[in-house]
């Protein structure tokens, strides 16, 4: 990740929610929160990895549901991390470790996390970056772990596909201008997740099917087809 990229996210950090709401109202937040109740048993204390959580609205909501989770949140932007810290109340039961690092150079621990959350994060990468990143994330997860992905996508066909492509092109242009984003179009990570042994448990779509929230669970070798 370039300095331009983290500087770009620093610049938009304070306005991120406002920019999002101008275009999507509350839809992105609805998508982010849609599967949180199914992620973790409120009585358990899962180890959770949150990647590129931005201004922390998802993490804040997750901790309300699962306050005793042990969370590691990695983000390259110091200002985004500051926003996250400001949102999370300093309650004694909250165990959150913030790591400011580009994901490309972050050294993931092995088989450590029960849950990973990537919301509107995997869309920051092109196909070759994703093909390197996804296996590294998978290696950090335990057997039977959960991967919660919320992201944009291109519906298969029809007017919804044209609509999504139009808006995704505008968003890519905006993020390329602000952050130097390398990716020129959305890459669907779901086929690769399945190749890595993660099976979809649930999927909801939003906003004319251009947004999805999917819960994947890692299958043991025995369960795999
Ligand atoms: C598009 S925003 C998504 C924010 C949030 N997850 C959401 O739901 O809106 C991408 C986030 O990932 C971070 N990010 C982007 N590229 C990154 C990279 N290569 N390494 C680490 N963090 C990165 C940005 O700083 C930003 O907080």
Overview of this structure, please?
The chain is an alpha/beta fold and 225 residues long. It has a single domain (3-223), classed as Rossmann fold, CATH 3.40.50.150. It has nine helices and seven strands. The protein has helices at residues 3-12, 16-24, 27-33, 36-39, 57-65, 78-87, 127-139, 158-179, 190-195, and strands spanning 47-51, 70-75, 95-100, 113-119, 141-152, 198-206, 211-218. A seven-stranded mixed β-sheet has the order 3-2-1-4-5-7-6. The radius of gyration is 17 Å and the shape is globular. The site of S-adenosylmethionine has 19 residues, from α1.
* Oligomer category: single chain
Number of domains: 1
Main pleated-sheet profile: 7 strands, mixed
Radius of gyration computed on alpha carbons = 17 Å
**Unreliable parts:** none
Strand order of the largest sheet: 3-2-1-4-5-7-6
Helix segment tally: 9
Computed structural class = alpha/beta
Quick tags:
binds S-adenosylmethionine; 225 residues; globular; alpha/beta; Rossmann fold; 9 helices
Summarize the model shown.
This protein has helices at 3-12, 16-24, 27-33, 36-39, 57-65, 78-87, 127-139, 158-179, 190-195, and strands at 47-51, 70-75, 95-100, 113-119, 141-152, 198-206, 211-218. It is of the alpha/beta class.
Outline the fold blueprint.
Layout: H1 3-12, H2 16-24, H3 27-33, H4 36-39, E1 47-51, H5 57-65, E2 70-75, H6 78-87, E3 95-100, E4 113-119, H7 127-139, E5 141-152, H8 158-179, H9 190-195, E6 198-206, E7 211-218
Parallel strand pairs: 1-2, 1-4, 2-3, 4-5
Antiparallel strand pairs: 5-7, 6-7
The chain binds S-adenosylmethionine.
């Amino acid at each position: 990740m370039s300095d331009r990229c983290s500087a770009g996210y620093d610049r938009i950090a304070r306005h991120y929610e406002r920019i999002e709401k101008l275009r999507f109202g509350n839809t992105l937040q609805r998508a982010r929160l849609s599967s949180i109740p199914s992620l973790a048993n409120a009585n358990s204390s899962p180890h959770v990895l949150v990647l590129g959580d931005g201004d922390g609205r998802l993490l804040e909501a997750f901790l309300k549901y699962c306050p005793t989770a042990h969370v590691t949140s990695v983000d390259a932007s110091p200002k985004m991390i500051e926003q996250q810290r400001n949102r999370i109340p300093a309650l004694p039961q909250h165990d959150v470790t913030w790591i400011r690092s580009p994901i490309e150079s972050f050294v993931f621990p092995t088989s450590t996390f029960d849950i990973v959350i990537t919301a509107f994060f995997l869309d920051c990468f092109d196909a070759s970056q994703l093909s390197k990143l996804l296996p590294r994330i998978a290696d950090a997860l335990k057997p039977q772990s959960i991967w919660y992905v919320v992201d944009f996508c291109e519906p298969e066909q029809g007017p919804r596909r044209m609509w999504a492509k139009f808006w995704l092109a505008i968003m890519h242009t905006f993020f390329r201008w602000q952050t130097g984003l390398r990716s020129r179009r959305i890459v669907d990570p779901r086929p690769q997740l399945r190749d890595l042994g993660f099976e979809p448990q649930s999927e909801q779509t939003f906003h004319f099917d251009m947004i999805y929230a999917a819960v994947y669970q890692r299958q043991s070798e025995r369960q795999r087809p």
